[in-house]
Amino acid sequence: MKRVVFLFYLLVFCKVVWAYDAQINGIFYNLNSSSKTAIVTNEKDDVFNGPDIYAGTIMIPKAILYNGKSFEVTEIGKYAFYGSKITSISLPNSIISIGERAFFGCEKLNSIVIPESVTNIDIYAFAECVRISNILIPKNVVSIGEGVFTSCDDLESIEVVNDNTKYDSRNNCNAIVETQTNTIIAGCKNSIIPNSIEVIGMQSFAGCKKLSSIQLPNTVSNIGECAFAESGLNYIKIPSSVIFIGSAAFQNTHLKEITIPKSVKTIESVAFSGNDSLTTIYLEDGVGVINSNAFVSCRNLKDVYCYSEDVPLTKGDGIFEGYCQDAILHVPQKVIDKYKSDVVWNRHFKKIVSIENEGKSNFLFWIITFAFIFLFLGIKSKIKIKK
Predict the structure, then answer these.
(1) Rounded CA separation 95/38 (Å)
(2) Are 316 and 291 in contact (CB under 8 A)?
(3) With the C-alpha atoms ordered 215, 220, 221, 222, is the resulting torsion angle positive or negative?
(4) Beta bridge partners of 258
(5) pTM of the shown model
(6) Listed residue (34, 55, 48, 37) closest to 78, CA to CA
(7) 309 near 334, Cβ under 8 Å?
(8) What does the alpha-carbon distance between residue 229 and residue 346 come to, in Å, rounded to a whole number?
(9) Do strands 22-24 and 27-32 pair parallel, antiparallel, or not at all (unpaired)?
(10) Which of 286, 287, 273, 279 is nearest to 304 (CA)?
(11) DSSP annotation string for 302-338
(12) CB 276 within 8 A of CB 304
């Protein structure tokens, strides 16, 4: 009986969330009689399925008339145009808020002008709008949610107007910076990180497929969760100022090698997971805690160089799990037995070798090689003299 009641409640609740009060000129609205305001919504009970309601060019009016009453249009509701086929949209200067995933996955949307009246842009509002190339954040915006421009493939210009007091685009950085915290909120393929930045924010470059490399200044201390996840990043130098690398920060990128500086005290779970191009990892002496699955499923990992004489602390035993078994762990000679006796490191690496002996072997190799070259040249010159 309880299950039946729960299912009934769930169905009713879903209906209430996605029900609309009025349809005027092909646009669906929820109405608030007390404030006399209207929210643009969607007809569908389930926005993830069913036919697209909105397509082509859309014009949202500043106000609507319904049953003889006037309602000011103040909000684009959450999921309002989710996955729709709209190509352009005109928003009135009465809009205050753009809701969660309001334009998520609008793959045909070429551009959008955010009105000066807007104060709030919720999470993932424009995520996966792959054709949008330019964004201008007006002066009254005081709240921007995470992942707001995630996976906007063609985005090449992001600018905050000069008189916005909450955000800025200092030094023409082509990104949104939260002024007080010096945090990058959102970036694009052309972003340049200014020297004053301290935090690369959560999902700020996530899904940025055309971002191949970026330079982080020595002021950055924190790389947030999913900061560069699913991006096209193939090269980055982590500066010695960084102390924290967030969960999935570099997940599924195209990095070929990475050096973790000794300043890093925490590498969160799945931080570098799924990097099929990653072949070499350098862990400097002093690297702190490495959390579970930090480097999981790096299928082509060949070498891990760990310079710490104290075996790095690991939380969880799946640090290098999945397709990494053939990688070689290189550690200081004096502590090689520590690594071999450590449950986590020994389980992940079948071969643990000395960094010093490797250096000596390489040095000896080049000595012998040069000796043979000089010997060969000497014999050759003697033959010429005899002739």
Answers:
(1) 10
(2) yes
(3) negative
(4) 281
(5) 0.85
(6) 48
(7) yes
(8) 29
(9) antiparallel
(10) 279
(11) -EEEE--SSPPPEESS-TT-SS-TT-EEEE-GGGHHH
(12) no
Task: Give Cα separations from 16 to 45, 66, 99, 258, 292 (angstroms).
Answer: 9, 20, 17, 50, 41
CA pair distance 249, 220, nearest whole angstrom: 14
Closest alpha carbon to 198 in 239, 148, 253: 239
Question: Do residues 207 and 231 touch, judged by C-beta distance below 8 A?
Answer: yes
Helix or strand or coil: residue 340?
helix
Q: Which residues of 243-272 are buried (b: 16+ CB within 10 A; e: fewer)?
A: ebbbbbbbbbbbbeebebbebbebbbbbbb
3-state secondary structure of 171: helix
Identify the DSSP state of 260. E
Q: What is the widest separation between alpha-carbon atoms in the chain?
A: 114
**Nearest alpha carbon to residue 148 among 200, 80, 99, 213:** 99
Cα–Cα distance for residue pair 250/260, rounded to 1 Å:
12
Please give the single-letter amino acid code of residue 345. W
Classify 296 in phi/psi space as left (phi over 0), alpha (psi -120 to 50) or beta.
beta
Q: From first to last of its 387 residues, what are the pLDDT tens digits of the chain?
A: 434 333 333 344 444 345 699 999 999 999 999 999 999 999 876 666 555 789 999 999 999 999 999 999 999 999 999 999 999 999 999 999 999 999 999 999 999 999 999 999 999 999 999 999 999 999 999 999 999 999 999 999 999 999 999 999 999 999 999 999 999 999 999 999 999 999 999 999 999 999 999 999 999 999 999 999 999 999 999 999 999 999 999 999 999 999 999 999 999 999 999 999 999 999 999 999 999 999 999 999 999 999 999 999 999 878 988 767 789 999 999 999 999 999 999 988 989 999 987 654 444 444 555 555 555 555 555 555 555
Strands 266-267, 244-245: pairing is parallel
Contact 178, 186 (CB under 8 A): no
